[in-house]
Amino acid sequence: METFSITTAIDYVNGEPHIGHAYEKILTDIVARHYKKRADKVFFLSGTDEHGIKIQKTAKSLNITPKELCDKNSKAFIDSWKLLDIEYNKFIRTTDDYHKKTVQDIFEKLLENGDIYKHKYKGLYCSGCECFLADKDLDENGNCPIHNKKPELVEEENYFFKLTKYKDKIIDHIKKNPKFIQPEFRVQEVLNQLENIEDISVSRAKTNVEWGIEVKSDPTQVIYVWIDALSNYITGLGYSTDGNCEENFKDFWPVNYHIIGKDILKFHSIYWIGILMALGVELPKSIYAHGWIMIDKNKMSKSTGNVISPKSIMESFNLKSPDALRYFMATSAIGGKDGNYSDIDFKEKVNADLANNIGNLLNRTLNMLFKYFDGDIKEEFINDNLINKTEETIKEVQLCFDNMDIQGAASKIVSLSDEANKYVNDNAPWTLYKEGKILECGCVLYTILNLMVKIALLIDAFCPNISKDMAQELKFDINIKFKDIKKNMLKTGKLITKEEIHPVFLRLDSEIIGSEAKKG
Ligand code: MSP
Description:
By secondary structure, the protein is α/β, with parallel strands linked by helices. It has 19 helices and 18 strands.
């Protein structure tokens, strides 16, 4: 049986979801949905990361308990993902009991094996990164360059993980597996970081951080966020240190991809890999680090006041479904580089690709089929003149996904629709009809509508609502696998009535209202 599994980073719940978080979940959802048309079984894991000093401090400032803060904000993430049609199979919260228990077991196992030891330590801790920073990590003012804040000097006795023991093995694995870290241009960055790697702190004194998972054999310490957070990838699938793992773990581990942001690549490609090696658990097949989403070319930050939530975009454009936003986000960054959101770009891109190109072509063609042939597909029309191009595109789109080129996949689909638009204009079925060339006219319409079935199947991962509408109009099953796509997908006989024809995507022509309201 062929399986495919994928994970996202789990988001910190000390704030509300913004479109940076949304970008990653959309990207992952699109990949998962695409592979649902290829693999027998797909598993998509997402969740929230709920422990640590930041949550503890935020909850205190709000005069609520950390758990209350986590419950409230975790729900905000779940609600947003529902709004965006993110179809994960499991949503893990690091405050879930099964997760906490397995993390404790993992810690004890590493301790028993001698991979964790206790050590007195003095270091600079950034609560934004939830990690210790070395002097070389700081900027010229001694600040954390990501959070632009001075780290705190912390002196504690903590447990340390012997990461250095695994350094050579990790380097070797990365070098031998060129697709282990993607995109490729990130590999060298990780290898450079590995050069200076040290053992890492994996616990904090409870006197300083209360909100965490207690070390079972030493209740004065709590397990420090990263070992807790990273373990979600296996606890969420039902891993157990005693070997009694659940079916999901057997079926879906190792995952095909961990999808994460570039800022946390080090934790995934070095720390997590060291921990898995120490546990004797197989390594994930690949780690894909995406770039960051900027707003109008600026970094999103609370202090700038430009943090935008996916919900506010949907509301301000009065979107009935998330398809436009999903499509835009997925195409806004190329090859793992940073991307950009702006209202204008959003509107232009989705109007051009989804409304003017794909939606309009389908609508025009169906209207002609109704006008000339009362909505009927006749046997003699079956002749798809663009079949070669279509079949080529189906292969190319899959190849793009195999290379995690999501933006490339979308542009291949739109190119196919471009081609079809050109074909319809070149062949002018309205003229053919007027000239009495009925058969030729019918064949042109058949060619377009048959191609539209393939477009719907390909774009389904990006725009599940638009594709469902297309499938309703063209009367085919949107859930078929790619291997079951036939040359001719349209049934003969009555395809559509006048009442059934409707635009599958409306242009975003509304005034850009409420852009101020978007800023949280
Ligand atoms: N909790 C950790 C991840 C633990 S994974 C075992 C964390 N949380 S986070 O909330 O800060 O970020 C969650 C994900 O969102 C990360 O992959 C991060 O890179 C991503 N993004 C946060 N802001 C982003 C943008 N502006 N743009 C794109 N992705 C961004 O890190």
